[in-house]
Design goal:
The protein is an alpha/beta fold and 361 residues long. It contains 16 helices and 10 strands. A hairpin with a 6-residue loop joins β1 and β2. The longest helix is centred in the N-terminal third of the chain and has 15 residues. Bound molecules: iron/sulfur cluster (2 copies).
């Protein structure tokens, strides 16, 4: 196992992290706790959950798992999150979380899922930062972190505020262009960087030909997807949502066989993405200056889901509602001026796709 420094916290955590959002049989608490033990025996020390993964069941499983890790003297760090914003609500939430997790303090506590800078401003207005700082002073949380769906300049702006010690965001060989700018702030502010969805929500293993550009001979799509992230020296933890002990074994084996590329080799691999992703949006955001205020890269990413996921339109709608939190109908605000299509490096028929999305909603 490789361990990396989490920002300036003084904590060294495992590069392979445990995500508690995909257990195959969440009602088997002991079985799920056993998956955590397998991971910890393989050297995993970073465990991430949330109060809304399978309701509160994931946090409950984690509590059982942590008790077992203590019994076996295996080290671990806890990460969880809150959507709450007012002090009363956050205190009620964290009280319940500490009980479920069966621990006296949370190592990495996240302001959960910032979807826009306006959304972040509104949470600050409710006093979220003051409350998080009080919780830290009281020893109930150890580090103030954020999870975000922001892209491009927005994520850099959020992190450059300098109020967080670490960040959790989606990043993979599928969407790396969308969030590359986060790393400017991560380096400048010396933040811990935890990435989720390392396999693009299953898209990478489902489309091995499309992601051939990241693979070495003999490597599985899962190994290649993880190595693409592990090669990135600014990434502290790569979260994998483990369903079973078999998933843990596969990821640990990828770590055991891992041989890094140089930064120059990684850059050369990234440059192949554009030609490999013909017809797909890469999230570069060169088009993101619509006079109608349409967030084009977000809509085009959702359309990618329609093209790549076996769930088609349902995947498109889910991406808009759950990930980007935008309405399909707003895609209909396009007046077909053509500015975005002239800027698009991938020659995406943006106007046509926006029309499809507006109707599909
Ligand atoms: S074509 Fe539509 S989406 Fe593109 S910039 Fe013009 S109004 Fe915006
Ligand atoms: S639609 Fe084109 S220009 Fe816009 S983000 Fe996607 S690839 Fe980049």
């Amino acid at each position: 196992m490789i361990y990396r420094e989490y920002g300036t916290t003084g904590k060294k955590v495992s590069l392979l992290g445990f995500g508690g959002m995909r257990f195959a049989n969440i009602d088997d608490y002991d079985g799920c706790a056993g998956i955590m033990v397998k991971a910890a025996e393989g050297g995993v020390t970073y465990f991430d959950t949330a109060p809304d993964y399978f309701g509160v069941k994931s946090e409950t499983v984690f509590g059982r798992g942590f008790a077992e890790l203590r019994r076996r003297k295996l080290p671990y760090y806890t990460a969880t999150k809150t959507f709450k914003t007012t002090e009363d609500d956050i205190r009620r939430e964290i009280d319940a979380q500490l009980k479920r997790l069966d621990i006296p303090a949370i190592d990495f506590y996240h302001v959960w899922c910032i979807t826009s800078l306006e959304n972040w401003a509104s949470r600050k207005k409710d006093g979220i930062l003051t409350t998080f700082r009080k919780l830290k002073e009281e020893g109930l949380i150890r580090h103030i972190c954020v999870s975000s769906h922001l892209i491009q300049d927005e994520i850099e702006t959020l992190l450059m505020e300098g109020v967080f010690e670490g960040v959790l965001f989606g990043y993979s060989a599928y969407n790396f262009k969308t969030r590359e700018k986060a790393f400017n702030a991560i380096r400048a502010k010396q933040l811990g960087a935890v990435v989720m969805n390392p396999l693009g929500g299953g898209i990478i293993p489902e489309h091995p030909e499309l992601f051939g550009f990241i693979r070495r001979e003999g490597e599985s799509p899962v190994e290649a997807g993880l190595r693409f992230l592990w090669d990135h020296q600014d990434i502290t933890v790569t979260l994998v949502g483990f369903r079973s002990e078999q998933d843990v074994a596969e990821a640990l084996s990828a770590m055991e066989n891992y041989s890094p590329r140089t930064p120059a080799e990684l850059q050369a691999v990234k440059e192949k993405a554009e030609s490999s992703f013909e017809g797909l949006c890469t999230g570069c955001a060169y088009c993101d200056d619509c006079p109608q205020g349409i967030p084009i890269p977000r809509y085009m990413d959702a359309y990618n889901q329609k093209l790549l996921s076996k769930d088609g339109d349902a995947a498109l709608k889910q991406r808009l509602a759950m990930h980007w939190v935008i309405s399909p109908a707003d895609a209909g605000k396009c007046v077909a001026c053509g500015q975005c299509e002239s800027a698009c490096t991938q020659h995406i028929p943006i106007i046509e796709r926006l029309g499809y999305i507006a109707k599909a909603g």
